[in-house]
Structure formats: C-alpha cells, structure tokens
Amino acid sequence: MQKHDPILDHALITPSARIATVTHGWRAKCLQRLVRLDMPVPRTVALPAGTVRAIAQGASVDSDAILALFGPAPLVSVRPSPENPDWGGPATVLNIGLNAARHRALVATHGVEAADTLYLRFIQSYATHVARLDPEMFDAPVPSAEAIRDALAAYEAEMEDPFPEDPARQLSEVLRSMARAWEGTSARLLRQAKGAPEDGGLGLVVQAMVQGIGLGISGSGAIRFVDPVTGLPQVTGHYHEQSQGRDALRRDGAIYLTRDPRGLSLQEVAPGIFAQLLGCGTVTRTRLREEMEIEFTIEHGRLAVLDAIKVARSPRAGLRIAVSLADDGIITRNEAVLRVEPGSLPELLHHQVDPRGPRDRFVRGIAASPGAATGRIVFSSDAAQASAARGEPCILVRRETAPEDIRGMHSAAAVLTERGGMTSHAAVIARGIGLPCVVGASDLRLDTRDRRLVAPDGRIFAEGDIITIDGTAGEALAGAADMLAPALDDAFRQLLSWADAVRDIGVRANADTPADAQTARTFAAQGIGLCRTEHMFFEEDRLVVMREMIFADTAKDRAAALARLLPMQREDFIQLFDIMQGLPVCIRLFDPPLHEFLPRGREGLRDLAEALDIPLSAVTRRAEALSEVNPMLGMRGVRLGVVLPEIYAMQAQAIFEATVEVGRRGAAVVPEIMIPLVSARREVELVKSHVDAVAATVRIRTGRSFDYRLGVMVETPRAALRAGEIAQHASFLSFGTNDLTQMTYGLSRDDAGRFMNTYVQQGVFPEDPFHILDVDGVGELLLIGADRGRATRPDLTLSICGEHGGNPESIAFCRRAGFDYVSCSPYRVPQARLAAAHLALLDRGCDDAG
C-alpha cells in the first residue's frame, strides 16, 4: 500500500488488504474474494470512496505511484466500484498508458492490426469520456495508421493541446473525469432513483490490462452457469475471438461457449480454458455462495478473470437458485427464504411474457394485476361471456369496470381499462381472482359504438383483434406474445414450506366462490378470512331472484324470493366447507346497497320489467327510490340486516344448514359469521339475536348440534373507537381497511386516483393510503380498536382483511400490534406467507440468515 495524503489512499488488492464494500465498493471487494480463491485475476489497485471524492474536489493523485505497482510501461483500465452494483457508475476506460511508444511495442508483440485497433479505440474513448469531445469527430470505419493520425489531429485541434503521451497524466485525467462524473447532478439523481443515498460514494479500481486481441487464442466474454430466466443449470453467456469486452476486431469472431452443431465453440477451440472456467464457476458458487457471472479475457491462450458479478435473474430464476443453493448445503434454508423478495412472487403465479421474445407495445398503463394473457378484444361483459362459452380467450376492454362487469371479468383472460388506478374496481377484482390487468391506459381512445380502440401511435384495433396484456409490466402488446408458464414447481413449494416453518402470524385468503377457495388451498392459505357473499348473487339465475326480492312489496314476498336463494347459498357454503376441509371460513353477511343489483340505463330497466312482468314505470320508481346520493354511506351492510332482517336470516340459515350437512359427513366445521359496516353495539345485538334464533331453529329441526363464531368487520372509525363495547358480543374483530381508509380520509377509493399522484408527488401523503396502509392515521384506529377490544375480551381474535392484508408493510404492522392473522386475495397469499417469514427472521436476528 502506498500512502501520500491520508485522504488519497490506494491499496493493491491482495488477500490480506483492508478492502471493504462500504469504503472501496462492491467490485473491489469482489475482486479481493476472487484473489483469495486463487483465481487468475490481473493485478488491481483499489481507490476508496474518500479518495475519489477528494479527486472530484480538486485534490491531486499520485498516479506515478499507482502505475509503479504494475511494473514497467503498464497498460491499465479503470472501472467504477460503487457500494451497490445497482447504482451504476461512469463508463470503464481501457488501455490507459497507450502512447506512440507503447503502440510500437504492441505492433511487435500483437501485430499491426491489433495494435492499431487498441490505440485508436483508446484515443476515441479518452476523447469522448475524459475530454468530453463529440464522439462523431473520432469515428473511423477501419483502424489504421492514417485513422490514428486523424484522431490525434482532431483531438489537438479541439483541445489546443496534443493528446497526452504521459501514462501518469492519462491516468490522473481519467480518475478525475470519472470522479467528477459521479458527483454530477444528473448522475446523483439517477442513482438516487435506484435507491442510493444522497451521499453514496464511488470507489474506483485500476486493473492491469489483459489484451483479448493478439496472436494465438485471444478473446473475451462472460459465462454464466444457470439460465437467468429459468434458474436451471445451463452454461450461457458469450465469447468473441479477438475482442475486448464487446469491442471485437472482427465481425465474425463470435463463437459458442459449449459444443453446438451450429458452429465452433470455445469448448472445442480451447478445452483446457473452458474447463478452467467451469472450475471457476464451481468455486465461486460454493465459496461466494452465489451464482456468479464471470467476465474473462484470454490472451495468447492464458485465462484472466476480470470480474464476477451476481447473475442478473428473473424472479423465477431467483427462487430456484436460492432453493438449489440451500438444497446443496451452500446456504441455510432461512437464508434462502430471505434471499427471495416477497414482491417477486406474484410473477411466478401466472403466465408471463417471455423477456427473450419480441414485444410490440401499443400502449402503457398501470400494472394493476400481474400476469399475462393473449386473446381477442371484446368491449362488453356479455361479449366476454359469449367468447368464454365458445372456448375462445378474450381481453375485456372497458373505459372502467363496475360491479355488473364481474361476470365478464371472470370470463376474460385479461382486462384493459382506459381509466382507473391501483385501487379501482378493475384492479381490486383482478388481483382478487388472479386476472392480468392493466388500468389507467389514458392514452387510448376507446370507441365503444364502433367497437374499436385507437392506440397513441394511431394504430386501430377492432373487436376480435388479438392482443396481449402484460399486467406485470403494465403494457398492452399487439398480437400474441411468447409466454412463460407459471412457476408453481417443487422449488416454489419448498421455499414457502421453509417460510411457513418460521413465520408467526396466520395468513388466510379472501375467497368469494368455490374457485377462489380452491385457489386459496392451492396456495396453502390457513382458512378464509373474508367471504363476500354478495358476489355469489351476480350469477344470471341468482340475479333474477335477487331482483325479485328487491321488488317485493312485503316481508312475506321478500321471504318467498329469499327462499329460492336459500338452496343456492347453502350449496355455495357446502362447497366452501368441503374445499377448506375443516379450516376456518369467515363469511361476511350481505354488504352492498341493493341498487347495485339493478341494471343501469333505460334499456336495462325495460328488460327487467319484461323479466319480472311488471310495468316499466314501477321498475323505474323502485330504482329511483333505491338510489342514494352517497351509496357508500347509505343503506348497506348491517343497516340492511337491521331494516330487512330476513336477508341475514336466510344467509344464516344457509350457513348453518351447510354446517350440518358437512358435519354429517364427518367434517367438523365451526363457521365464522361476520357483520359488516358496524358502528354501534346495538346493531350487533340486533343481528346477533336474529342469528342466534336461526341457529336454534336449525339445531331443533335437524337434531344436530354445532358451534359458530360471530364477529364484526370494523370498517367505520366509530366501530374502532367503540370496539370495547362491541367486543362484548363479538368473538373476533376483522378490520376492513378498504372502507376504514375511505371513511378515515373522507376519500372515495374509486375517485381518489384523479389526484392521488399529485398528492404523493407533493408530499401530502407519503404513499397512496389505499395501496399502502396508513399506519399513522388508519393504523392508530386499528391499535385503538385492538386495545379496547382485548381489554373487554382478552381472547378476542384480531385480523385485517382489506386489500392491505397482503402488503409486507401491513403484515409488519399487524405483527407488532399482536394480530392473529391477515387475510388477502388468494393470489397474494404466497407473498404474505413469505413476507411474514422475512419479518420473523429479521426480528430474531437470525444468525444463519447470511
């Protein structure tokens, strides 16, 4: 180590040198690890971030002392080494030290063509990256002595100074240029966008050049030992004869790495070097405990390892690699769990557009629900259902979706909407049923009358045209894209089983239909935390009966209509109980306002009048009577149960009869019944008395005994504040954070997207509170409700069941608050299971977590 000014330290990288990632950067530390593994790494000197920052501020660096470490007349490169490779850095500069004398020496050792190529490229690189001259001034199609003279002349004309011949001066200027580039405003903003702190430093490494251009076997490349898309073992990468990095001496120099019938390979040309590279891969995997990509150069038949970086990988590859490393005993199972980010799992649950294939994007929107699907465009829910009946996949394109579009969404392969945000109707439903969805594609022009859409670039897509929706990227593509199948393989199940072994909070699923429940079981949910029974009534046969009930004039007529719904509901619950096989099922009683079940528009009302055989005027009057100024705060939830108790009575009877039927088969079921939108204790008392009476009736009539639990969905601020008295009549409280957030903020979830981005950008809200739980405001209500509820009833079960339930941030909050479980859409269950395991391991400070 050479020391001059203590700020301007530099260190020769040896096994024992004091090199640290935080001071010298990731590349310097990685190179030291490779040196310790006896890899053929060229001699390298590391400059710490403090030295680089001092250089940027004008301090001089003793380049002569640095070059002296490389022997006489060295050629070196300078590469960036930030603390995190994701932060990027200035471009690498190669062949520093090249001048007229060194060029003549290269002619003797490497030949004229190689020497001219190396010298001209260095002049071009120095002129553009260091002197900041126009690159077009130094374009030369063919390296030659004349091209070199022209480049040197152009440099001198622009700089009014000859091209520097002194290697020390060249190195000093390169170091200064790279240091100042890192400190520039644009570079700072760019790396901060990638997660770097404002004061994130840059180290630099100076490395002896290995020429991949010359006599004998020479070239450069990079080799990986796993497929970066699938994570399966496979040698991939690239190799180019007579090249430095991507700069090749010949256009035809690319050859395969492994034997291939299509052409020559490195394995055949240099089997010994290829075997060395395989050995390097094995050593880096076992000793660095990671799948690495090795950058290498071959000069005159000698291998040099220039660098090794973690293989860039897709989420499915990342999971498979982590499990493989744990299975091989290289890392622990807990470390494998921590290496897979919970947010990466949704991509594995659905088909994805293959990143290796072509993409013809015609519009970009918001990635509302992950996955990808190809189908023919349809513009209505009816058309989507008709397409599904024909067995043809379709893409439902709407300006925005509404509750009556649910059947169409279930029939579609994917959804594209012109309007909406992450918490719009389309986004929430799509995530719940695992449907790829892009919303907020506001650059589209949708013409529903002519059944066509116009893309921003003017292309017109008509109904029936084939498009692909990439809900993961938030893009719509023309035509059918290449797809990757879901990655629900043994590695996926293995990792989540390891996660389940360490997490300490339950994870249930929101499931409204038997299909949802089956998905929940597939993803190993520990029960159903929210079954929204109203979604069961949108099927065509049930919708007709539901509308008959709405238009009934007396309680007796309503009861008659509900009696026709009873067996349908009972069968729904039997299927749910059968699928869940004794796991808890929490059923929310009817919640939405009745007008949601009526058609919109005069045409729909006319059809309804014909179906019910009543005058259109009567239908219109009833629809107008049911309409509300603010339906979200109107007659819905428990208010319906109090005013029209026969609705909840029918549902309770269906639940209890299903419980008895499944019990007869030997399965023990303890249903959980949840009352929605409660704000007062008396509401719970009234509904409880009706439910208890129905339970008693069913017990007497069937001669069977059964248990059930009654609880409350806390969706109003008052319910959270009065949780102590509400808990007197409730076995559990489940916080519905969707409505609770709306009521706490006084915001409509469906309309907030119009200004939410502005609010977040201007710092009014740190995040969209419908997407990320507001732990300060809404969270305080959760804590108050939990504390007051358990003060009354210590054994009270606590959970959340809104859209927030699958977010890692919400899970962390619930763990701290002592909640028993979270409930989220079935397709978010794997993410929630893994996030809960991360939190448990990090809280334990797991010694073997890496």
In short:
The protein is an alpha/beta fold and 850 residues long. The chain contains 32 helices and 33 strands.
**Number of beta-strand segments:** 33
Helix content range: 40-55%
Gyration radius (Cα, Å) is: 33 Å
Number of helices: 32
What's the N-to-C terminus distance?
31 Å
Strand order of the largest sheet: 14-24-23-16-17-18-19-15
- The average pLDDT value, as a whole number, equals 91
| Strand residues, percent | 15-25%
Q: Can you tell me the overall shape?
A: elongated
Helix/strand-derived category reads alpha/beta
- Low-pLDDT runs of 5+ residues are 1-7
The major beta sheet can be summarized as: 8 strands, mixed
Structure characterization notes:
This protein has 850 residues and is of the alpha/beta class. Helices cover 42% and strands 18% of the residues. An 8-stranded mixed β-sheet has the order 14-24-23-16-17-18-19-15. Strands 26-27-28-29-30-31-32-33 form an 8-stranded parallel barrel, surrounded by 5 helices. Helix 6 (112-130) packs parallel to helix 7.
